[in-house]
Amino acid sequence: MSYALEGRRVLVTGASTGIGAALAEGFARAGAVVGICARRESMLGEVLQRIRQYSPHSKMWAVDLADLEGIEGFARRVEAELGGVDVLVNNAGMPKRRRVQELTPEVVEAVMSLNYFSPVRLTLALLSGLVERQGRIVNISSVAARLGPPGEAAYTASKAALTGWSESMHVDLAPVGVKVHVVNPGVIDTDLFHLPDNDPGPTGIEALPVSAIVQPVLDQLESGTFEIYVPDWFVGIVDHKFPDTDAYLEGTIQWAHANTGESG
Ligand SMILES: NC(=O)c1ccc[n+]([C@@H]2O[C@H](COP(=O)([O-])OP(=O)(O)OC[C@H]3O[C@@H](n4cnc5c(N)ncnc54)[C@H](OP(=O)(O)O)[C@@H]3O)[C@@H](O)[C@H]2O)c1
Question: What is the CATH number of domain 9-232?
Answer without folding.
Answer: 3.40.50.720
